[in-house]
Amino acid sequence: MVSEEELKRKLERLAPAGRGMYDREGGQERFWRTVRESEDYADIVGEIRREGKRLGGTPVPELTYGLFTLFEKRGTRLEYENAYFERRRRLNTYMLLALLEPEKEERLKRLYDMIWSVCGEYTWCLPAHIRTAEARGAIDLFAAETGFTLCEMRRLLGDRLPALLRDRIAQEVEERLLRPYMEAGPFGWETARHNWSAVCAGSIGAAALLLLEPSERLTAIVLKALGSMACFLEGYGDDGACLEGVGYWNYGFGYFVYFADLLKRRTEGGIDLFAHPKVRAIALFQQKCYLHGAAVANFSDSAARVPAQLGLSHYLAGLYEEFDLPPSSIRASYTDDHCSRWAPAFRNIVWCDPAKRADTWRDADYVLPDAKWVMSRHTSSCGSFGFAAKGGHNDEPHNHNDIGSFIVSAEGVQLVAELGAGEYTAAYFGDGRYGFDCNGSQGHSVPIVDGAYQAAGPDSKGEVLEASARDGEVRLKLEMASAYRLPHLSSLVRELVWRKRELPSLRLTDEFAFTAQPGSIVERIVTLCAPVVLEGPGGPEGGAGRTAGVRFADSPGTMDNARVEDSARTAGIPRIMNNACVEDSARIADNSGTMDNARIADNPGIDDARTVVTLDNTDPAGGGSATGFGTEKGRAGSLLLRGEGSGDAALIRYDAERLKPHITKRTYSNHYGRETDWYTVDFELTKPERKSRVELEFELISTERGAD
């Protein structure tokens, strides 16, 4: 960063603010006519018009007292936020339609009314971010964004916006943002090392650049915003990884870019934040976290699928030669952003370059040493596959207790999964955060040691012993005992080895060392696929299934609480490969026959959400020893995870003499408040010792081969 004195000198020579800051070749009017008429923009223009038609048939939602006070009373957010974001959607849509169809006066009238309505809101903040009594002087993410939005619309419309509305916007931004920013505070987000500093300070700085002419006051605001931008960059390592996930990269780094672009334009290149080497590294993070198409490595509070903001991506591609364009097919549609943010929606048009196109992500392996992540995209004649794993610590932004967690995917479908973000409520960000399965280690593919989950805090660390990508393999080896806070656990080393073959495989090895005899060791695997246990040597390639003992326990937290035990034969392999799974209170049948108490059927789920299914892999008939997994004498066990609607699956091989799998169907409330099914497969070590070693092999297979 340049010195403060040099910044002041450059800021004193700012170019005037005006519509020219957005000029494209041929001017604004010609540009919007091209957008309206060109096939290159037909999809997004159609989305905007359809949204305009939908909104025209519905009333403007009111932000009532009842909605505003719900968070304080019940801790729930979605009720108020759904109405708030619908209002922002109207504001954005009517503005874009006014740019696309300037001859239609009705568009402008609706826009004027919506601007007036937003200016009259009690607060631009969300109730979840403020104390009700301090609402008037508060600034949160969405208050700052709203001010930026209104100032940008004011500049774009120029004289088309009536003087009263121009003055009202200036007055509201002054009273709600600029004056509190400079005279109140300091606000906690000003020095945050995550998205809040970039979004809040970037939006306020951008609003000032759009609203104010060169002056000491504008210089002071921009300098203060630059201080927050420096704090934002400190939250990243030199590898550029966003620990909050690519969704928050789009958000936090996106607003950094929007501010940096306006600053570069008004200083006519005199202040160029994009020349900072860390900014370049952060820009390249996007291409390092996609597994396939829109599917991402969704550690922390991230969604599993994140459409690409093509405007932001095309802008960055114009700055950095090594920036990989995302596939055009994963373009974020106009309505994808449930928060209805103006800045990215607008720039998805004005920064979008139809000449910049990509069909797919290129194959690549990445080691991110500061984040302690590894990631791999691999394509073969059998399909597209992905792997990601993390170390890190348990005090990260939007933290999950997830040291050692990993993802295995095929064609973008997670077979070994991350749950990602849950529904944001007061409790979700409160003292009970890690009681939510998606946040605590109970909802991640990591061990449970003597009944203990991982603990939160910076002292819970995954120390990297090896992280590499070479010779067709990606490796991550971690010492992670500190995460468990168990005095008798002296070491827990997890090694993950991803082998990139035609059909890839992953070997997981955990080595435990204790100073006293452990009571239990459980290897938990998290999946969104209904698991199917297969018996016999060789899994699906083998012949007839082996005999299995099946137990049902009606408490998911109790592993030895058997209720029914029976001996049965598993289904023949072609039926198993049709996504069969165990059903409660039915029968297990082979291809011809009859059995008691349970049934393996095509394509059901495990019916009872509280049913635990335990297969103890014993052969009462004494069918001889199989070629074991793990030891020569061990009996091989195998379990299938198959993606819904997909022909690809992961076959988990394990030593059935030493490990007993327990399958539990569970639910959690996802980010949008929808109850979502997920499953745990708990491999219980039957004889834990002071030095114990557990191995699991994950083989990617195509279940369509050989299915009937």
UniProtKB/TrEMBL annotation:
InterPro entries from the UniProt entry: Chondroitin_lyas (IPR008929), Hepar_II_III_C (IPR012480)
Gene3D superfamilies: 2.70.98.70, Chondroitin AC/alginate lyase
Location (main, coarse): other
Residue ranges occupied by any Heparinase II/III-like C-terminal domain in the UniProt entry: 388-513
Compartments, record wording: Cell envelope
Pfam families documented for this protein: Hepar_II_III_C
Protein name as it appears in the record: Heparinase II/III family protein
